[in-house]
Amino acid sequence: MGSGASSTTGRSGISASIALPRRHVLPDVVQHRVGVELAGDARERADEDLDLRFRGVASHACLQRFRGSVDLIDVYVPRAVAPCVGSDGSVATQRRAENALEQWRAHAGLDARTLGFCVSQRHAEFMKAYFSQRGVRAAAVHSGAGSDPRALSLEQLEAGALDIVFCVDMFNEGVDLPSVDAILMLRPTESRTLWLQQVGRGLRQVAGKTLRIVDYIGNHRTFLQGAVALLPLGNETPAGLVAALKRLEDGEQLLPDGCAITYDLRAMEILRALIPVAQGREAVRLWYEDFRDRHGVRPTASEAWHAGYDPGTVRKHDGSWLGFVRGMGDLATSEAAALAANRDYFADLETTPMTRSFKMLLLQAWIAEGSFPGPIGIDALVRATSGQTLGSAALLADVGDARTSPPALRRLLETNPIAAWIGGKGTASGPYFAYDGVSLSSRLNGQGEHGATLSDLTREVVEWRLAQYLGLPRTGDEPSAVPESGAPEAAVPPNLWQEFMREQIPGLWGLPFQANLWRQGFVQRGGRMFLLVTLEKANLPSEHRYDDKFVGPDQFEWQSQNRTSRASKPGQDIAQHKARGIPVHLFVRRTKKTQRGTACPFTYCGELEYLSWERDNPVTVQWRLMAPVPGRLWGGLKVQPPGTGA
Question: What angle do CA 419, 382, 463 make, to 5 degrees?
């Protein structure tokens, strides 16, 4: 075992255990690895201590494939996880209950106040009866007849009158349970988000609290969700998970302060056996389906690339990434028609050689201007290209001094990407574009009918190609990779009122893009504070419909997360941001998705200055914009004109 590691002898033996010093665990681990639900709690406790001990144990109920009736599946577990049910169709067995009690006593502690997550009402009642018969004060809370009172059970748990509350989909989110210091995961789940929400019920901090999590590992891929959520993976590929488990077993310090992860030997064996061994297109397909199941939408090509899967792997079988998506049944009718009419174009867009970023940078700028695939004047294209380079220090280096000289940048565009595109260089079936010295136009089929769709599909491929380009190893005159961390500061600040995709925003300040962090609406990184606001939130869960709005051209009203108080560290950073030297940057978009279902960009609204605040949980903050929103953007950003009231 490595430095700081500990080993304990248990019933099944210990595979790996890490005991780390206490300090700053959740901001550094949870924000990066386990998503918005836990990250919200993490920000509340950035300067508080938290001990977290996770133990994975082999499940006795999930070692045989199901051979019983469908009715029993419906009673006990979701149909999706039926293969991990015991041979009699029941997870509520004497053997598993005995093991659960043993593990709870050994690893949660007899004085722990525990939530136990079960798969069904019957399972919860069985566990309550089993624990109660052995002297444990237990309750079962669910939506069926015979449930113990929900509010009273939680009050008794907090007061110490109950030891454990078994529940079924009752406390997954939206419940503040600071007294809970143990989580017993007795159910599998297809959803990583649900797993995180359940674990998150124990993450509210109380002085001196140590959160203990006991999770059962069975022989179905759903049980990989906890490991993927907790372990710091380089990417989400099978190889990334294998490497993380090996490092854990070797005693390497994977997580920062306050965390310990332990898997018993049998659980570790099960996890290794669950990791898919597929390669090539099959590996991409499995990851794609898992992403779609977890998020409810298909992944984009760049999301596949950042997760460690090359979208180009599917090209031989499907012709292109978009051909693969069509085969998975995830292209809308209009998208499939646009792809069919321009099959060669999209195939060439994926494969055209790039020694510099210019080809994709030009298309990205064209799309950002909103005229693609229609014509764009060269002057507008020059301005848009200059702005697009701000998303990356590497793109700035490609363009060099030409960025600040429109004539020089025009010459660069005309002699490089425009010449290549209109000459069909690096394409099998081009050219797809034409240039008359004044404007650039496309020759794509169906522009009138599929214009917006062609723009969205092209954007997806361009974003992947740029991500691919920026990830290439670089030496000498070849492109040099943007570091994953510690990237240099951007050479120039972003332009006001310019649009940026979420993935571009951290690069404006030389910061790496980490999806789980930057998908939130409030980010503190690099000595700065970023507000990423979507104004229309009708499609979001009710607890996330924060009332954010422009109350005037130079004033913005913003609400924090529900758990934020004015006394918390984030709250104090907000009110004292000027004194503490923390610039606050505002990015706003009206809606989350375009009509085609793709992500909308954010408009950069500049720096903010704190004016006032009121209330807690959430805090409502009034900000002053350093530069008022120009009138041309009032409609799109829902700005209240002066004198009209809020």
Answer: 75
Q: What are the per-10-residue average pLDDT scores of the chain (646 residues)?
A: 31 29 28 30 36 71 34 32 41 73 84 88 91 95 90 91 89 67 80 68 67 74 64 61 70 58 72 71 86 81 83 93 96 95 95 92 92 95 87 79 92 95 91 96 93 94 88 41 32 71 84 76 89 79 68 92 82 92 93 79 92 90 91 88 66
Bond preceding residue 232 cis, omega within 30 of 0: no
Alpha helices in 471-598 (DSSP H): 515-518, 569-575
CA angle 552-558-561, nearest 5°?
Answer: 170
Distance CA 443, CA 178 (A): 61
Tell me how far the alpha carbon of residue 522 is from its chain's centroid.
Answer: 14
- How far is it, in rounded angstroms, from Cα 476 to Cα 380? 32
**CA dist., res. 367 & res. 347, Å (int):** 19
- Cα Rg of the chain, angstroms: 27
CA distances from 578 to 43, 463, 584, 586, 625 (A): 20, 36, 9, 15, 14
CA distance 62 to 65: 8
Q: Which alpha helices (DSSP H) does 148-261 contain, by range? A: 150-159, 192-200, 224-230, 238-249
Q: CB under 8 Å to 381, separation ≥6 — which residues?
A: 362, 365, 366, 369, 413, 440
